[in-house]
Amino acid sequence: MGLGSFRWKLLLIVIIIIFLWQSSKIWLSFAQDHVTEEEFLESEVRIIEKEVNAKEIVHITVYYETLCPDSRSFFVYHLLPTYMKLKENVQITLIPYGKATTTQKDHTYEFKCQHGPIECQGNIIHACAIDLIKDQSLLLNYLSCMIKNNIDPENIMEICAQKMNVDSNVISKCYSGAKGKELLAKYGELTSALKPRISFIPTISLNDSVKDQAKILKNLLQEVCLLFKIKPEGCL
Question: Which pLDDT belongs to residue 16?
Answer without folding.
Answer: 72
